[in-house]
Write a structure and sequence with these properties.
The complex is a heterodimer of chains A (324) and B (324).
Chain A lengths: L6 H26 L14 H8 L7 E3 L5 H6 L4 H8 L17 E2 L4 E2 L8 H14 L6 E6 L6 H12 L4 E7 L2 E2 L2 E2 L12 H5 L3 E5 L3 H16 L5 E6 L17 H9 L2 H9 L5 H24 L20
Parallel strand pairs in A: 1-4, 4-5, 5-9, 8-9
Antiparallel strand pairs in A: 2-3, 6-7
Chain B lengths: L1 E4 H15 L3 E5 L15 H5 L4 E3 L4 H12 L4 E6 L5 H18 L9 E6 L14 H5 L5 E3 L4 H13 L4 E6 L6 E4 L12 E4 L4 E5 L2 H15 L4 E5 L2 E3 L3 H11 L2 E8 L4 H13 L8 E5 L8 H7 L3 H12 L1
Parallel strand pairs in B: 2-3, 2-4, 4-5, 5-7, 6-7, 10-11, 10-13, 13-14
Antiparallel strand pairs in B: 1-8, 6-12, 9-11
Chain lengths: 324, 324
């Protein structure tokens, strides 16, 4: 079927989801050990959205992301060691330790980039899409954003402009039910945000965000549409934020029952169940073990990497004749 | 040389740069079919097509964010924000996005965009259409801020801003659009970050930007009648600031008046004053005189508005105080 991933693609998506899960667990440990700085926003249980939505993109397609972007980074093909090194503030990180985990970017992968201002990744993708249109390119720009972002004014402005100008944007709404501690029911009068798409004049779809195949197939159709110059689409992927807002979150506002319910719908479990019908269990086990080891090695390497040394930045501060 | 109005000089700059470089495009409210409310983009839609000269919805936040990311992905947007009073709407895109990425992403991207806007009082436009908010952006590292006072500089600096690989905020003044002066023919470029001596003098230096340069020149003529020789330095660029020109002039006259049309408190004059104190203290014979708009909302009624804005008379009085 068109827009269905090959078996190799599916195994690669599975591998990337395991990478992300191990990355989140390793970062949780590093945070407890005091080896990271600032908060870490984990995406455990949301891996299928970021990985499934980016799997059909080329490296020169653009993706803009959020403060909870690890699955988007890995989905777009970023190297685990350089991600971890960035999060640990090392010279070897994607941004030489200047960005930290929320604002990672890799121009060579078209990931520009994580964004810690809620909603800001949405107009960012629209601007990129406008450039692509002017350059008469068939490349696309995707923003992956949350239900919190969907309530910003710039989300409205962006969807209106993208639909008006038929820009090659894919709006992937990763609905994880929470904006920090406040549930989406207390932020929006409607539960299904994809319905807004119709009002902007673009297709809107809802998909099980914990099923990587469903996410892939739904997004791939929208990517094809955008490449044909037919304009943007909105895909709402329903998932759940099992982890707290960040490592600084004290919790107490999410029910244990609901978390348990969503643990049963874990995206990796769902993927394994489907893949077991296609490959030997040992194949999946080998992929899992190698992925886990890959992250462990990346963490060890990053911990041994050097810190950057401070230098002024001429483009930021082009005063004449001022000594720091 | 050709006699041109300030608005025509800007129009020439846009036309020449669009003809020179296919990746330059314009967007903003009313800029395309109507040619801009101050007619700066007049005729450009006809010449370059609606794909490169776009009327937009009233969505300043998103338009600015789009300029940032379009600039990092292969095109050179020139965005018109109709009034400087609307600049607060652009600030997330400038302060949290444009200003950080070159440094934070370790120079993986550059952002060659220009945000043009116009500010200033004296037209009876009221408290929401008369402000000079230069310092809102001049405060932020990573963004150049240019404010031409003459048609020649308007053209030369806008052409330089469009070619600059970094973000440039280009501040025009509503009362200057109809001012006429000679503009060099051909590919006239002015270096961003270089001040201009608008009038040579030996007793007191008046440092000004934008329309205040003309008020300072009127003040200098008035002072000349009293036997006072005032030097007028048109800073042309707020950031990067031409410290060298400032220090040289103070060394010559030993007296300084700084004037910017923004509010006085925490205004651009404070930066100029501090720069003189830090770098030319031993050359000063008197405290620096600082002028700006009186710290209150800009009122509508003519006698009220005139009272709060700096002008030639107030500048001349400040120069006399400095020399007392």
């Amino acid at each position: 079927m068109k827009n269905s991933p090959s078996l190799d693609d599916q195994l690669e998506m599975y591998r990337k989801m395991v990478l992300v899960r191990q990355l989140e667990e390793s970062l949780g440990e590093l945070h407890k050990q005091g080896k990271t700085r600032g908060p870490i926003h984990r995406c455990d249980g949301q891996e299928a959205v970021g990985v499934g939505a980016t799997a059909m993109l080329s490296s020169d397609d653009y993706v803009t992301s959020t403060h909870r972007g690890h699955a988007h980074y890995v989905g777009k093909g970023l190297d685990i060691h350089k991600i971890v090194a960035e999060i640990l503030g090392r010279e070897t990180g994607y941004c030489k330790g200047r960005a930290g985990h929320m604002i990672v970017a890799s121009a060579e992968h078209g990931l520009l980039g994580g964004n810690a201002i809620v909603g800001a990744c949405i107009p960012a993708a629209v601007g990129m899409a406008q450039s692509l249109k002017l350059l008469k390119s068939d490349r696309v720009a995707m923003c992956v954003f949350g239900d919190g972002s969907a309530q910003t004014g710039i989300c409205h402005e962006s969807m209106n402009i993208a639909a008006l100008w038929k820009l090659p944007v894919i709006f992937v709404l990763e609905h994880n039910e929470y904006g920090l501690t406040v549930h989406s029911d207390e932020q929006s009068a409607i539960k299904d945000l994809y319905k807004r798409a119709e009002a902007y004049g673009m297709p809107g779809k809802k998909v099980d965000g914990n099923d990587m195949l469903a996410v892939y197939e739904s997004v791939a159709t929208s990517v094809d549409r955008a490449r044909r110059g037919e304009g943007p689409s909105l895909i709402e992927a329903k998932t759940y934020r099992r982890a707290g807002f960040s490592t600084s979150d004290m919790g107490g506002y999410q029910s244990e029952e609901k978390i348990a319910l969503w643990e049963k719908k874990d995206p990796i479990t769902i993927a394994v169940k489907k893949l077991k019908k296609l490959v030997e269990p040992t194949t999946l086990r080998d992929i899992e073990e190698l992925a886990i080891q890959h992250v462990k090695d990346a963490v060890d390497q990053a911990l041994a990497d050097p810190y950057p040394t401070f230098e002024p930045h001429a483009a930021s501060n082009p005063y004449r004749g001022v000594v720091l | 040389m050709t006699m041109q109005r300030y608005a025509e000089a800007l129009n020439s700059a846009l036309r020449e740069e669009m003809a020179r470089d296919d990746t330059v495009w314009l967007f903003g409210e009313d800029v395309s079919t109507y040619g801009g409310v101050f007619k700066v983009s007049k005729g450009l839609r006809d010449e370059f097509g609606p794909e490169r000269v776009l009327d937009t919805p009233i969505s300043e936040q998103t338009l600015t964010a789009m300029a940032v990311t379009a600039a990092m992905t292969g095109t050179r947007p020139v965005l018109e924000i109709m009034y400087a009073d609307f600049m607060p709407l652009t600030l997330d895109a400038l302060v949290n996005q444009a200003s950080i990425y070159e440094y934070i992403w370790a120079d993986q991207v550059q952002m060659p965009f220009v945000l043009r806007t116009q500010g200033g009082g004296g037209a009876g436009a009221g408290a929401q259409h008369s402000k000079s908010l230069d310092v809102l952006v001049a405060h932020v590292p990573g963004i150049k801020v240019v404010a031409p006072a003459t048609p020649a500089d308007a053209k030369g600096l806008l052409k330089a801003a469009i070619r600059d690989p970094h973000p440039v905020v280009f501040l025009e003044h509503k009362l200057l659009y109809n001012s006429r002066d000679e503009v060099p023919d051909g590919d006239h470029l002015c270096e961003i970050g270089k001040a201009r001596t608008a009038r040579e003098g030996s007793d007191v230096s008046i440092f000004a930007t934008s329309k205040m340069v003309h008020d300072a020149l009127k003040a200098a003529t008035e002072l000349e009648a009293d036997g006072i020789s005032a030097e007028v330095i048109d800073l042309r660029t707020l950031r990067p600031l031409d410290n060298t020109a400032i220090v040289q002039s103070v060394k010559k006259t030993n007296h300084a008046v700084v004037v910017n049309e923004g509010w006085r408190f925490c205004g651009f004059g404070a930066e100029l004053s501090a720069t003189i104190m830090e770098q030319a203290f031993d050359d000063l014979d008197a405290p620096v005189e600082r002028l700006g708009t009186f710290d209150m909302p800009i009122p509508y009624s003519e006698p009220l508005e005139t009272s709060v804005l700096p002008d030639a008379e107030k500048i001349a009085a400040a120069a006399r105080r400095a020399l007392r």
